[in-house]
Design brief:
The protein is α+β, with helices and mostly antiparallel strands. The chain has four helices and four strands; from the N terminus they run E-H-H-E-E-H-H-E. Helix content is 43%, strand content 23%.
């Protein structure tokens, strides 16, 4: 049996810092508040345009990251969505993270 994985974009704290700067979220606020505000705005924009759910994933480094799910290996339809390069590029063009899309495992609490 193949372990369940999701395909999409990890979003790290540095990505959220970049978004906070783009969105002109006040730099005097604490980094966590700026990142949280950035994540909420970014998540809303991606969900509205692409219907991508979000979750948290475990990176190879062992750290966790927020994540936009493009698809998974659970169903043929989900798998086909992961191979839609136009969709992948369009999402990347919106979120502009530092990390390419890839296959990741969910955090233990998510599945």
């Amino acid at each position: 049996m193949v372990p369940y994985q999701v395909f999409g974009f990890p979003v790290l704290d540095k990505d959220l810092d970049d978004w906070a700067d783009r969105l002109k979220i006040k730099p005097k606020r604490s980094p966590i508040i700026r990142q949280d505000n950035s994540w909420r705005i970014l998540r809303r924009a991606v969900r509205a345009k692409f219907k991508c759910p979000t979750t948290a994933v475990r990176l190879e480094s062992g750290f966790a990251a927020m994540f936009f799910i493009i698809g998974s290996n659970e169903t043929p339809e989900d798998l086909a969505r992961t191979q839609n390069m136009t969709l992948v590029k369009d999402i990347y063009d919106l979120i502009r993270t530092r990390h390419p899309p890839g296959w990741f495992s969910l955090l233990e609490t998510d599945r």
